[in-house]
Amino acid sequence: MDSFWNGKRVLVTGANGFLGSHLCFGLIKNGAKVCGIDKDAGERKAGGFKAVKCDIVDFKSVEKAFSLFKPDICLHVAAQPIVGIANKSPLSTFKVNIEGTWNILEVAKNRILKALVVASSEQVYGEHKKLPYEEDAALLALRPYDASKSCTDILARAYAHTYGLNTAVTRCANIYGPGDFNFSRIIPDTMQSVIANKRPVIRSDGTPLRDYLYINDAVEAYLVLAKSLYLGKIKAGEAFNFGSGKPVSVLSLVKAILRIAKKPNLKPEILGRNKFSGEIRKQYLSSLKARKILGWKCQYSLEQGLKDSFEWYCKNL
Prior knowledge:
Shape: globular
Number of strands: 14
Order of helices and strands: EHEEEHEHHEHEEHEEEHEEHEHHH
Helix content: 40-55%
Number of domains: 1
Oligomer: single chain
Strand order of the largest sheet: 3-4-2-1-5-6-7-12
Largest sheet: 8 strands, mixed
CATH topology: Rossmann fold
Number of helices: 11
Distance between the termini: 31 Å
CATH architecture: 3-Layer(aba) Sandwich
Radius of gyration: 19 Å
């Protein structure tokens, strides 16, 4: 428990989501007073937590939430996070991820806010020959979801440099763990299949290399970054990568889940679609900057994170 958070007023956007809900829980556990806003939230209070219905694409709704709660810190993680939906419906994704972000930034600029952390993504880097991605790499996103997060990223840093808004950006690897019901993602989808004794399906050819970050490590990353920003230990407008530094292929990931589930007989069905989809072959991050400046590093190995996740899905699916 970190006494820094005791009594701090923290507004979390996307509080009903996978990352947002874990952030709320982590903050409450550390003694913070939390207001979680979400377009699907039901108005309620419990202990140090208050849920407020608020759609971030509605500027007046965002302004009202900030005015009533008066946060010291805001963690902006609300987004349309599903790549498939973004490909099919780019305008709605742009509206939430880009307009929603500029609403948060514009409202925050006119408030006495000590720190604002904005969620970007490793996807913003696009495809580079040099790996792992470092924070000074160009943002070369070319697909709708990735482009929307690039805009989020740039807007947050623009408000820091232009208006002095005390903002920092997180670029996280693929976050996974208990409570993720987005079954278009490889880990929840594989675990759901395995629990049902069905062969897991790999949409690609299994070779794409990716970095995976356990949810507890992601929460710690946000809290450490927000605290450092609040205390003036980092400059406004900086971006930080957070990843395990140990990328694995999609096929290796699925095989690891099968080992944990003790179901090696469920051979993966490999569709091989990435040959035609333009999917980037290799994406993974360097978190050296976060380690040097913030003192952050992963505490969970992939094996431990997958074990904890699988136990949770077994109990809750």
